[in-house]
Every structure is written in structure tokens, then in C-alpha cells.
Here is the input.
Amino acid sequence: MDLILIRHAEAYERDHGRWPDDRERPLTPRGVKRFRRMARALAAVLPEKTVVWSSALQRAWQTAVILANEANVVAPAACRPLEPGGSPVAIVRRVNSQPDATGIVLVGHEPELGHIAAHYLIGRAGRTTNGLIGFKKGGAACIRFEAEAKPGGGVLLWLVTPRLLLDGSG
Here is the structure.
């Protein structure tokens, strides 16, 4: 099973005047454009039976919807543990509840995605793993499991930034 972690695409800067609730802060037009291209590139590596889970925050949700549309995968489902402050342990339980999926995409935020990656790669997550794996906005990583997805049991197959995947163009 492949676990693909994606950080939301480029969003507007925090602006309490425009978005009093930061959960509603959307992607920028540039972020939408770049992630559409990124999603088309990711479509080539997504497993056949891929499910998409996303933080419900607007910027992550928009990213997940773009991925679903451009990569022709199922519509995203909201996943509260992917929101800021979420628990990698809750993600482990949810991932393991999907035995038929050959791919699971998690769309979320930093530092939570870095913690989830560390949890699956080295078996622990938290402040001591900050910086172990960092996700650029719109960046993605794939962690593969030969059997059950368990902490410390994954192998990092790839980690890409939008600039790397899109050849540095806007």
C-alpha cells in the first residue's frame, strides 16, 4: 500500500480582515494553477484503488478537490486528524481501517504531515522529529508499506516539491 502525503497548495497569507476564521482561507490563483499541473503529474503514480482524505480547512480541501478532479480519483472525504493539532496515531488507525485500498492520499498541513511521515518512517513523531521531513506548499511524498501500515514500517519512495516536479516553471 502506498501512502501519499500532500501539503495544501499555496494559499493567501493570513488576513483576519478577509478571513476572520483562518479555516476559510483559500488557495491563491497561482496555487490553484500550479497544483492543477502537480495533480496531473501525480495522477501517473497514484495506485488504482486510491482514496483521498483531507483536512476540512478550505486551503487543504481545495487542494484535495483539485487532485480528485485532475487525477480522476474519488472525491475527498474529510479527516479531522489531518487538521492542525491532529494526531498521527489517529491517522494510523484510520489508514489501517482501509485494507482494500492500494493507495491513500492525505492532504493536510505542516507540521502535522511531517509528524505523520516521521511516525510511519521511524516510529515516532513530535517535537523531536520537527524538520525530519518538511513539505513545501503543494509538495508530496510517498511512503510504501509491504504489509500493514504501521509506525516505523514504511519506506520513503519519493519526496517532491512543486518546483522539482513542474521543472521550475510557474
Q: What stands out?
A: The chain has one domain: 2-165. Strands lie at 2-7, 50-54, 77-78, 103-108, 140-144, 155-160.
